UniProtKB/TrEMBL annotation:
It comes from the Bacteria. InterPro entries: c-di-AMP_regulator, YbbR. This is YbbR-like domain-containing protein.
Amino acid sequence: MMDKWLRNPNVVKVIALLLGILLWAVVHLDDKGTTGSGFSTNQEKTIYNVKVTPIYDEGKFHIASMDPTEVMIRLEGKESALKKLSTTDKYQIVLDLLGAKVGENTLSLVAKDFPSGVKVSIFPPYAKVLLEEKQTKEVPVQVNVIGNPANGFKAGQGVAKPNRALLTVPSGLMDEAITVKADVNIENAQSAVTKQVKLVALDKNGKELAVSINPTVVDVEVPITQPFKKMPLQLKVVGEPAAGYGISLFQPTVDQITVYGPQELLNTLDFYEGPQVDVSGLKADQIYTLDIPLKPRITVVDPPKVEVKVQVVASDKRTFEQVPVTIIGQNTNFDTRIKSPQNGALNVTLEGAPATLQKLKAQDVQVIVDVSNLPPGEHTVNMNVNLPQFVKKIDTETKAIVEITAKSQDVATAGSQSAVQTPAKQQP
């Protein structure tokens, strides 16, 4: 019976038609579904916390605020299309601000770079944005020194080149106090630290600002030195000009120098002993260029050299009459008397440059006798004549005769009683 049906041409045609219809329905089922049946192959997917990407001219504008910054999206499409989302992150939710105005804007969000065949719904569908215009502001660069130099060294003031930076900031920050800082580490440094440093902009609370800085990097130098002290330079003159000449001018180019070394050594120095200036046999003007020597533990002297200008002229003579001899080192229990020179005074003849001699006064010339530790009796002692620099004595006695005697008992006793009673009278 079945064979008879199959051999019937009309039956075969009907069966072929039915099979064709079924195949067509299967092929088109994914695209259109079955009309009226409510069945569909489309699927839905929800993604939370998708970042909103604003598009704007970052060189001219600044986003002061944006709400929301993240959204939820609902996707609808074929399973094959939705699966493509899991293999790529290229899609974006975009906020186009290229045509926005400065101030507050409410603009629609746009889905971008999603696979074809996927319907995207955005919640919420728009965002509010406060747009500010950027302006330029010049700010000084502050060098911030981090760490400490090696023991015994000091850090000087750091210098940045260039020392000012140009900031591009939102208009709302133009009146704010902004600091541009360059951090440089000098830990254990023993010499100047020179580095290229990236600049950072900070607000008044010390929080870093995301603003454009030009230049972004500067050259910074921090001098590192040992402790130093400025003090007088002492030059020692040795020798004498040729006979018949005197020094009329002795002029060093510097009278003070800066001395570098350990602080405990600098604290003990009130002056710095420089080089000797030898004027032996000098008959004409001379300029000396001398190195300033380094004492033990002194590392640097500034300047390292000194120039001394010396002028000589034909010398002259001047006599100071009856210059009193001063006794030093007397014992209070003895009387000391000068027997020679007579009257305890001495005529002193001096030689030097005429202008120098004319400026001298009697009190500028001192004749001193030291009787320290001498017992009673008569003694011959040296007389020392103290004179201003570049003046010498001639034809002058060099010895004095002094007589030391014990004081009378009454005088000694009175002096002793006075010494004892005086503190008692001062007590309340």
